[in-house]
Amino acid sequence: ALVTDRPQDLAGRHVVVSAGGTREPIDPVRFLGNRSSGRQGVALARTAYARGARVTLVAANIDVPVPAGADVVRAETGAELRDAVRAAAKDADVVVMAAAVADFRPRTSAESKIKKVAGGAGPVLELVETVDILAELAHERLRADQVVVGFAAETGDDTGSVLEHGRAKALRKGADLLVVNAVGGGRGFGTEANDVTILDGSGAVVGTAAGSKDEVADAVWDAVVERV
Ligand code: CTP
Ligand code: CA
């Protein structure tokens, strides 16, 4: 659809979207990262702008151009992303955490490059857990009427289906909406298309979408508009 075809149902709203993948330093030249391209977050920012919102995009190492119309704040690490999201969220009606945030970071980052020692044992990285930005926003509620949205990339396994894992995560996170993305088999990370189920905070299905990341983004905003 053309940008101008969209309803202006986010007019007057400030939405914050995080996108991309965080990088946690090991030393000055190395990091622990992930394969998030930032495409879904950028699609969310673009479509929110097209629906009339003021948009702040907190971008962590995205592989795609930033959308026109969004205020862009860059972040590298999970800690930087947390600070940037929280600062922007203070006056936001909606916060969408589409970024892939590292769950663990190296406890320390070496000040100089870690060198090989010929024939020696490799270094052992000690990892510590990072702050769960989404859960923190959802439980703390920086603004009383703020809609907090999370994303979850899930695979089915012997402990549960994609939806079962999504439901458990929806309850655990405390967000108003959780967009559950089935990954594996060519879906999800780095690909053009998505296949998502949108859950509310109780784990009930409130929407589904399959198709482009813009179509998924519009389905997310449809669910958000019913809540703001
Ligand atoms: N998230 C976050 N801060 C973190 C980790 C995740 O805000 N430190 C957010 C993501 O941006 C996403 C949601 O939490 O919106 C779900 O991320 P996911 O990795 O699926 O959930 P986890 O709770 O980290 O569980 P898992 O063990 O499956 O990785
Ligand atoms: Ca995680």
UniProtKB/TrEMBL annotation:
GO biological process: coenzyme A biosynthetic process; pantothenate catabolic process
Pathway membership, UniProt: Cofactor biosynthesis; coenzyme A biosynthesis; CoA from (R)-pantothenate: step 2/5; Cofactor biosynthesis; coenzyme A biosynthesis; CoA from (R)-pantothenate: step 3/5
Region (Phosphopantothenate--cysteine ligase) residue spans: 15-228
Presence of keyword Lyase: yes
Superkingdom of this protein's organism: Bacteria
GO cellular component terms, A-Z: phosphopantothenoylcysteine decarboxylase complex
EC number: 4.1.1.36, 6.3.2.5
Magnesium keyword on record: yes
Keywords: Decarboxylase, Flavoprotein, FMN, Ligase, Lyase, Magnesium, Metal-binding, Multifunctional enzyme
Protein family according to the UniProt entry: In the N-terminal section; belongs to the HFCD (homo-oligomeric flavin containing Cys decarboxylase) superfamily.
Protein name as catalogued: Coenzyme A biosynthesis bifunctional protein CoaBC
Source species: Cellulomonas humilata
Gene: coaBC
